User: Fold this.
Amino acid sequence: MAPDGEALLRFPEGFLWGSATAAHQVEGQPAQSDWWTWEQIPGKIRDGNTAERACEWWAGRYAQDLDLAQSMGHNALRLSVDWARLEPQEGQWDQSAIERYREILRALRSRGIEPMVTLFHFVSPLWLADKGGWTDEATIRRFEKFTERVVESLGDLVNLWCTINEPNVYATYSYLLGIWPPEKHSFTTTFRVIRHQLVAHALAYRAIHRLQPEARVGLAQHLHLFDPWRPDSALDRAAARAQDYLFNELVLSAPADGILRPPLAMNVKVPELVDSQDYVGLNYYSRDMVAFDLRQPGMLFGRRFAMPGAEYSMDGWGEIYPEGLYRLLKRLERYGKPIYVTETGLPDNDDSKRPRFLVTHLAAMHRAIAQGVPVKGLYFWSLVDNFEWKEGFAARFGLIALDITTGQRTLTASGRLFGEIVRARGITEAMLHRYAPELIEKTPA
Ligand code: FCB
Assistant:
């Protein structure tokens, strides 16, 4: 048994304790982008808000959030740059935006916080969207150029890069389900967008290493679990496997073996894609059960639903399933790379479930680490309540609560707990007792 206050589930030396944000979700004063144009159309955003103010980082309020991050013991933060701001017209660069990002990065470094910078997190400059955005093959080269420019401008302050956030989510929401701009419903376009993003990732990976050989580069993969509703049913198992293949396996295998599998392409091997990540980034939120259903040909005969009777976050956001994080980390072990949990979190507007979520998900990570999986850091989603895409501010994810009227920040109970965890370098017995007593017998003394 560990002495009082000392972690029972202790994390390795050098572990990165951080949270994640994205430019459009926190900055405010948006540039001309596809998202900014779309969200101003009445009815698009659930609570009627836009990202006009967001968390006012661009107006300088990032400093308050970074102070709070520091007080929570953060030694890492994942943030993104906004392509629309940096390159407002094709080939034209806004030097003042570069300077502002440099200021934010310096503010991080001066607080002992190591940045991970994402180059594309869902938002395209309007000029790019007008040319078809990621449906246009030429965007692969445009992104490569953009990457080079960003690395030349910020590389002295950044070592850890994340090329693209969640190609599968981006393509599915924007081009298959039609929930996000440009609201398309096309299977072929969806997989074209993913293919272009994977190849763009590969070229960006090579470009970054040319300019900055010591950089560490990866991408953030959103993996969702699909479990057969009746594990003894071969049809349910096949339906679950089909969903897993299309959503997870296609994007996961490509940056390892370089192969674009159907329906991305007919098993085409892209040389630049082979071994194109220095770490594997995992964004994990939830799982679905899948039952075979002849009435759902569009979903490959898989009906998806949340596990009945489970613990849930907010309506429609699915099951809280920490075991899934453990299972996915074990799955990622085969790539032989360091792993960062580049996002995990939950919408929880009154912060009532987040403390337990933190403890159970860190315990799941610890279990994987204890079994030899090289998990090197956590970027909790999110540092501060922010503009949650179509939900606006209706779904709050922050360790810091934001009053969107006054801009006032308050550290939540989960934020305070995050700080205690970092100070203890892990989960103490008292934390388990309080938040996850069911894990106590399972924890080796
Ligand atoms: C992820 C996104 C992130 C945020 C969280 C809740 O899929 O990368 O921007 O919206 O979900």
Notes: Residues 187-211 form the longest helix (25 residues). DSSP finds 14 helices and 15 strands in the chain. The CA atoms of residues 387 and 393 lie 5 Å apart. The pocket of beta-D-fucopyranose is lined by residues 22, 165-166, 169, 222, 283, 343, 381, 388-389, 397 (CB under 6 Å).
